[in-house]
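Holo prediction — guanine.
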Amino acid sequence: MTARIIDGKAIAQEVRAEWKIRADALKARGITPGLAVIIVGEDPASKVYVANKVKACAELGLHSEHIALPADTSEAALLAKIAELNADPKIHGLLVQLPVPKHIDGDKVLNAISPDKDVDGFHPINVGALATGNMRFAPCTPYGSLVLLQKSGVSIEGKHAVVVGRSNIVGKPMALLLLQHNATVTICTSKTVDLAKYTRDADILVVATGRPKMITGDMIKLGAAVIDVGINRMADGKLCGDVDFESAKEVAGWITPVPGGVGPMTITMLVANTVQSAERSAG
Ligand code: GUN
């Protein structure tokens, strides 16, 4: 078997066009959805992510604010900035790019963001809402992965979904979203004993471990849908995922490439969450 390649770029374009229609409808009512992105410090990867988030907003005609604070910003100053944006009616979505510098308590920061503007879905209230089936904002990367499956025609209900990775940003919310769509879900970690026993039984396999090429073709069930959330830079400068694409594509039914798979969807769902937040505040 040669897998169908899930084209994240093309699907992201399609989804963005759908959300642009909703954003334009709000603008016709005098409401421009607005996103504020705060970055603290100079982490090069974070700077690229933040620039791309702001650019995606501009492309859809959204209002965006890029707040770059120096690495030595105090926790109190950051919390004050968050409070200001929580109260700003032009802003419907607010996020602080992670990780924050070590002298700042990341949990305190996430707790300070208004749950009504928490477009990353990281506030404990929104984590709880997802866990209890009352989702308000789904975290963007797992939400985007779910949309990739849906748009590719992969059926989820009743299927065995295995998520490798249990981070708060990807693995845990991914498992909850799949459960919400009636999959039977197993969560594994890089420490799972006999990991292949689980992955070989997966109809849907989502991998988010940050370990380059750790899932190989012999660990995948024939015809499975494989979503590779990993993005790793190799010694030769090339990017690769957590799945060994070459061997996996011979076995899988569907597979996302790296780059060009999940990546373009993450920012798309951030825009979607921002527009949705503006819709809610507009009533
Ligand atoms: N750092 C890595 N991924 C993310 C994300 O989705 N949101 C935020 N705020 N920071 C991140």
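READOUT: The first strand starts at residue 4 and ends at 5.
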